[in-house]
Amino acid sequence: MKKKIFTLIILIIFNISNLNFVNSAENNIYQKIDLFGEVLEKINKEYVDEINQSESMDSAINGLLQSLDPYSSYMSPEIFNEMQTETSGEFGGLGIEVGMESGVVKVISPIDDTPASRAGIKAGDYIIKINDIQVQGKSLSEAVDLMRGPVGSSINLTVRRIGKKKALNFNIVREIIEIRSVKAELLKKNIGYIRLTSFNENSSEQIKGQIKKFKNNKNINSYILDLRNNPGGLLSQAIRISDFFLDNGEIVSTKSRKASENRKWFAKKGDLIDGKTLVVLINYGSASASEIVAGALKDHKRAIIIGENSYGKGSVQSIIPLQNKGAIRLTIAKYYLPSGKSISEVGVSPDIEVNEDSDKFRIKTETDNQLNYALKLLNG
Predict the structure, then answer these.
(1) Percent of the chain clearing pLDDT 70 (strictly above)
(2) In whole angstroms, how large is the CA radius of gyration of the chain?
(3) CA distances from 285 to 176, 226, 230, 361 (A)
(4) pLDDT tens, residue by residue, 189-204
(5) Residue 356's Cα: distance from chain center in Å?
(6) C-alpha distances in angstroms, 179 versus 98, 113, 198, 199, 375?
(7) CA angle 355, 367, 379 (to 5 degrees)
(8) Which of 43, 54, 122, 355 has the fewest C-beta atoms lying within 10 Å of its C-beta?
(9) Bridge partner list, 160
(10) Which segments of 62-122 are extended strands (E)?
(11) Rounded distance, CA 234 to CA 205, Å?
(12) Per DSSP, what are the bridge partners of residue 105?
């Protein structure tokens, strides 16, 4: 009897201490909310210039999201509406995929044959000024808005590049950006070359069609899949394209706090190129879906990966609408390769590292030493 009473007392004490812990945590949060309100009030009364409180709140929300990772962000109702109504596959601008890192806009990758790529913008460049306006302190959405403008108008970007002491200046004229995700051609009479610049809704069908055309040529004995400066896109397309070259095995998995987001995808039988040699080209501009394809083919030893380490964007973002008709882009899961490795912040390393020769390097030109290396390897 005494033992039961003693046990009951311990349980009551444990439950009370748990309740106190929860109450303490809640009180701490409420104290922080009160503190935030106090800071906002002080700014409103004491700051040297008059401020727009609504914009300040938007910046605070965005700051909270960006403190989580570079890919989570806030979209105001205007920006969210613009994103939803933007014409698919065609838009005005420079032709770069950008993200945020330490409060600075970072180029994930320039898109092929666009003003940015022709001007010499490279993956990994940090944009520090847009038309002499400092970017640091602005949200990604604000920076993107600054880069938008009428087609035919020019913009000046000041860029910091790793390995360069001085900032670089680029004057770029805005154009309508049309994204053609798949380009293909025969190289050296025996190599099927496929360049994939993004993972759009019909990318896998385009690649499938190109492979069928190549198979009519009996001289083709190897293939190159070029994923350089490909910032990613649809997960479903990455899975389908990986499956084209695999007979079985895991392609990718996602892990999340929600059990419903924990999933695995596997290859079905059937290699579209019948086991022929495959080279995959990647660089620092290869991100997200590109890394899934390169990583899966590398882990299964189905392809030789040539180039540079990829970007390291191995996470899944979801657009979650808000009551104010805005939305947040929130990271909800991470990608894992068949080996169990995470892509996040690590990327995919090449089997053969070939770095870009110089600043004059351009993909699929005479200066493309990575492609030239692949061609020599396949014909060696």
Answers:
(1) 90
(2) 25
(3) 21, 12, 6, 14
(4) 999 999 999 998 889 9
(5) 21
(6) 16, 9, 8, 10, 26
(7) 80
(8) 54
(9) 126
(10) 73-75, 90-93, 96-101, 104-110
(11) 13
(12) 100, 127
Measured CA to CA in angstroms, residue 204 lies from 201, 235, 338 at distances of 8, 11, 21
> Whole-model pTM?
0.77
Q: Measured between alpha carbons, how far is 118 from 121 in angstroms, rounded to an integer?
A: 8
Nearest CA to 308 out of 288, 294, 296, 326 is that of 294
Run of H or E residues at 317: strand 315-321
In this structure, which amino acid lies at residue 334? K
State how far the Cα of 305 lies from the Cα of 289, in Å rounded to an integer. 15
Distance of CA 185 to CAs 192, 194, 220, Å?
Answer: 6, 7, 11
Count the residues in the chain. Answer: 380
Residue 11 has pLDDT above 80, yes or no: no
Q: Give the CA distances from residue 60 to residues 8, 33, 37, 165, in Å, rounded to whole numbers and listed in that order.
A: 47, 12, 12, 33
Tell me the two tokens of residue 103: 């409060």
Which CATH number does 180-316+332-379 carry?
3.90.226.10
Residue numbers annotated as active site: 288, 299, 313
Token pair recorded at residue 75: 């979209």
Name the residue among 210, 244, 352, 236 with its Cα closest to residue 289: 236
H or E stretch at 170? strand 168-173
How far apart are the C-alpha atoms of 102 and 10, rounded to whole Å?
48
For 27, 56, 254, 333, the CA distances from 257, given in Å and listed in that order, are: 25, 31, 10, 8
Q: What mean pLDDT do residues 105-111 have? A: 91
Confidence of residue 311 (pLDDT cuts 50, 70, 90): very high
State pLDDT tens for residues 318-360. Answer: 889 999 999 999 999 999 999 999 999 899 999 999 999 888 8
For domain 90-177, the CATH architecture is Roll (2.30)
| Domain locations in the chain as residue ranges | 2-51, 90-177, 180-316+332-379
Q: Is 25 exposed, middle or buried (0-12, 13-18, 19+ CB in 10 A)?
A: exposed
